[in-house]
Amino acid sequence: MNVFESLSIALQALGSNKLRSSLTVLGIVIGVAAVISLMSIGRGSQASVTSAVQAVGSNLLFVRSGAQTVAGVRGQQGSVQTLTLDDAEALADPITASAVAKVAPELTTGARIVAQGQNVSTRVVGVTPDYADVRNLSLAEGSFITDQNIQARSAVIVLGATVAQNLFGDSSPIDQTIRVSNRPFRVIGVLQPKGGSFLGSQDDMVLAPLTTVRYRLFSQRTAQGAINVQLISVQVTDESQLDAAKEQISSILRERHNISGDDDFTVTSQQDILATFGQITGVLTVFLGSVAGISLVVGGIGIMNIMLVSVTERIREIGIRKAVGARRRDILLQFLIEATTLSLLGGALGVGAGWGLAQLFATQQINGQQIQTQVSLDVVAMALAVSVMTGLFFGIYPAYRAGRLDPIEALRHD
Fold first, then answer.
1. How far apart are the C-alpha atoms of 37 and 30, rounded to whole Å?
2. pTM of the predicted model, to two decimals?
3. Which phi and psi (to 5°) does residue 104 adopt?
4. Strand 183-191 vs strand 156-159: parallel, antiparallel, or unpaired?
5. pLDDT tens track for 231-286
6. How far apart are CA 230 and CA 78, in angstroms?
7. How far apart are CA 382 and CA 215, in angstroms?
8. For 119-263, where are the alpha helices, taking DSSP H only?
9. CA neighbours within 13 Å on the CB side: how many for 326?
10. Helix axes 315-323, 328-361, angle to 10 degrees
11. Looking at residue 371, what DSSP letter applies?
12. Which one of 220, 250, 257, 399 counts the least CB within 10 Å of its CB?
């Protein structure tokens, strides 16, 4: 008996017990659908994080202040102010830092902003003109901060999309006067909406000249009188120059800070951040897939149970087939094909159900954030393969039991 004959007999046997076969398939359908839909959420989260990191800019390095250690306990990065505006200007030197294209220092503080009877609390980020290019920002209207604004410490401000909407609604805020921590500022621009990132929402913030923030809103200085900055974003000339840029930045800062031991700063690339988030989302994806995989195991146990019942019901049939020449492996193969057919059919239906659930999840929100899902071919192939393997694994024992039946005893069975 060849495989096709065995398959034909298996389909006839399954078709003769449609309800029982359908209920058995249902367990595999639920398992495969759960694996695909939950893993699509994990993959979607991974893609969303990658997109958010890349949206900040391209070929970026982030230089942060070091951590303060008190009584042997090391604090978080940035807990001690070690970076200055002079450091940023040194990193922009094309002679000593040839791999660096642009540098954008930041000085951030919080403030209450009031305009037209509305008020909001948000971040005020002191920046330089290169900030827009380094962070890949675009203007919805107006203009960005210029070198003249930096030199004159102008009281001008660029609004993030959310802040502009909250303060002015649909009307244009350009040339309007707003009060930031009770100081008047003139609005010169509004940013295009960009969404959130690992550095916070880029819509819920306002930008002002770094010198203006330093002298009007944030008066902290170092002991030597230099202007502190909290973060320096460095755009590298080319992706292949990231390592060279890291070395150049570290060398310049060590020399400026007279460092002979541990660095008082950290340099992080987008790839480092993506790798960290990738590990987190990878663990999340595996966890969700493992939880869903339990459903497949339950479905497999259902297959084994039904196949054992089927063997018991068809003992005389097995005896007759053996009496007319069927070998043990023919019986074994037939029941294995029946179990595999059940699991494969369940897997195919589960793929459709899982895809539908993924589309349904993609329409939902959690805390205002749209759920991202991504159904990939490798996940579909893996779910199908696991469903088939489940059918084979849980079908082996019933098939082995059927193949071991003695034909004489089987023919005597009532």
1. 10
2. 0.65
3. -135, 95
4. parallel
5. 899 999 888 888 899 999 999 999 888 887 778 888 888 778 778 877 887 787 78
6. 7
7. 59
8. 131-134, 147-152, 161-168, 210-212, 242-256
9. 24
10. 130
11. P
12. 220
